[in-house]
Amino acid sequence: MKATHLILGFCILFCMACSSEDENPRTESNDINISVDEYPSSGTFLSQITTSLEGTVSFTIQSQTSSQAIIITQNQLAVGDWLAFDFETNEVLEATVVASNGAETETINVTVSINDVDDIWAFLSGSSRTAYENASNGEWVMISESEYNDLANYLADTTKSGASDNQIFSGASVDNYTGNRTIANDNGFAIPTGSYVFAFKYYSWINNVVSSRVKISEGDSGGLYQYLGGMLPEHNDEFNHFVLKGVSAPTSSEGFIGMYASGSVGVKDNASSRYKWRNGDVDNLDNTTLGNVFLQQGLSTTLKQWD
């Protein structure tokens, strides 16, 4: 009798073990989970794709968070649309890859976590990036024209204020306007409410400028104008481009970009444009003139994308 009971108990335990294994089958997953810094270059390798299928296997992307963000090159995942790799827009990108050998298919889930970086830093390189890294918050850093244009074109939610590109690059000749004045265009290109002003460019008529300042007024194009950041770095004639490190406070209302120009600056004739000015480094501009545009422009965004 005891032997019978032992055999019966053994069978029950064996069946329970088999049942447990059936309920929790062991599976192999070829899903991909990776992370990458913001703004990788198009074509950057992301991951190898592996499959449990045998034979000649093809891979296709069935769906993804942002169209063309991720592409397949043979059996590798790579960056397609690099602008989709923006932490402020997509903290995570997901895709579904289907592998097929013609007879069987396998679904592979892809998750790409975006690492947040300083977006301004990401668009700089060489000496500009080094200067930006070494700058303190509130300092202006000189950058190249191409870096300024990249920020204007690709940084999310960016607005240009002060003067439009059409006004700045019109066929009119550049004329000299006297320095030691506070000046601002008043032609409808304002800074939206809730914006962070992070870049500035203007045309200097002279070399070795050392004490010019960017200014901003909220609510009224005539002032009250206050300094935005410290003095601009020393610079020379023609167009100069700058970024401001560590902007932390957005505008509370519509804003206007201006500057104290310690030296002569460039203007162009423009019948539909007007500007405000006053001698010296002042906060209120009580003179209005029609027919010219100062060659100065600010960049702002409503989305803070830096530390």
Kindly describe this structure:
With 307 residues, the protein is of the alpha+beta class. The protein has helices spanning 2-23, 119-122, 126-134, 145-154, 165-168; strands spanning 32-37, 45-48, 58-64, 70-73, 76-79, 92-100, 105-115, 140-143, 158-161, 175-177, 181-185, 196-204, 213-218, 225-231, 238-244, 255-261, 265-279, 287-294, 296-301. The strands form 4 sheets. Strands 10, 11, 13, 14, 16, 17 and 18 form a 7-stranded antiparallel β-sheet that branches. A 5-stranded antiparallel β-sheet has the order 8-15-12-19-9.
Notable traits:
7-stranded antiparallel beta sheet; 307 residues; 5-stranded antiparallel beta sheet; alpha+beta
Helix content: 10-25%
Strand content: 35-45%
Question: Structural class, please?
Answer: alpha+beta
SSE pattern: HEEEEEEEHHEHEHEEEEEEEEEE
From the N-terminal CA to the C-terminal CA, the straight-line distance is 78 Å
Mean pLDDT score, rounded? 91
**Main sheet, how many strands, which sense, barrel?**
7 strands, antiparallel
Contiguous low-pLDDT stretches (5 residues minimum) are 1-27
Number of helices: 5
As a whole number of angstroms, the C-alpha radius of gyration is: 30 Å
Number of strands: 19
- Silhouette: elongated
Secondary-structure topology with pairs:
Layout: H1 2-23, E1 32-37, E2 45-48, E3 58-64, E4 70-73, E5 76-79, E6 92-100, E7 105-115, H2 119-122, H3 126-134, E8 140-143, H4 145-154, E9 158-161, H5 165-168, E10 175-177, E11 181-185, E12 196-204, E13 213-218, E14 225-231, E15 238-244, E16 255-261, E17 265-279, E18 287-294, E19 296-301
Parallel strand pairs: 1-7
Antiparallel strand pairs: 2-5, 3-6, 4-5, 6-7, 8-15, 9-19, 10-17, 11-16, 11-17, 12-15, 12-19, 13-14, 13-16, 17-18
